[in-house]
Amino acid sequence: MFDWMVWTTPVAVFFCCIALMLVGMTVWELKSPTTLRRGWLPMETTRGDRLFIGLLIAAYINLVFIGLAGKFQEWLALEAEPSIWISFVLSMLVLALVMRKG
Q1: Among 12, 51, 70, 76, which has the highest number of CB atoms less than 10 A from its own CB?
Q2: Cβ proximity of 73 and 83 under 8 Å
Q3: CA distances from 100 to 26, 41, 66, 88, 94 (A)
Q4: If DSSP codes are grouped into helix, strand and coil, which group holds residue 6?
Q5: Of the candidates 49, 30, 59, 33, which has an alpha carbon nearest to the alpha carbon of residue 98?
Q6: Contacts of 44 (CB under 8 A, 6+ apart)
Q7: What does the longest C-alpha to C-alpha distance in the chain come to?
Q8: Which UniProt keywords are present, listed alphabetically (predicted)?
Q9: CA nearest 98: which of 62, 26, 30, 46?
Q10: Secondary element (H or E) of residue 86
Q11: Using an 8 Å Cβ cutoff, are 34 and 46 in contact?
Q12: What are 48-86's pLDDT values in tens digits?
């Protein structure tokens, strides 16, 4: 069923984190309903809005990193392409920033 996807450890961890976030946000919403709030995003958002925006940004960060990994290897004169864990950590930090300050 999942043969079309390259399930490496970083990919599996990324999707498990997304699933856990969705479950956590559902429980949080049931316990404490959200209200609109204005952060540095150019609109009022709820927690769910910020999660969606943060997940989109996280996905784009990972895609850009994968696309540029070969160039990073050239530019930085590395022996191998940089680890995908770098983009995972960066994308989760950006997601946390959007959730907190967005």
Answers
A1: 51
A2: no
A3: 17, 11, 26, 18, 10
A4: coil
A5: 49
A6: 36, 37, 38
A7: 51
A8: Membrane, Transmembrane, Transmembrane helix
A9: 46
A10: helix 84-101
A11: yes
A12: 899 999 999 998 998 999 899 889 888 988 898 888 889
Length of the chain: 102
Report which residue type is found at 69: A
Whether the CB-CB separation of 17 and 92 falls below 8 Å is answered with yes
What digits encode the pLDDT tens for the residues 53-63?
999 999 899 89
Could you tell me how far CA 17 lies from the centroid of its own chain?
Answer: 9
3-state SS track over 19-83: HHHHHHHHHHHHHCCCCCECCCCCCCECHHHHHHHHHHHHHHHHHHHHHHHHHHHHHCCCCCCCC
* Alpha-carbon torsion (56, 53, 16, 1), positive or negative: negative
pTM: 0.78
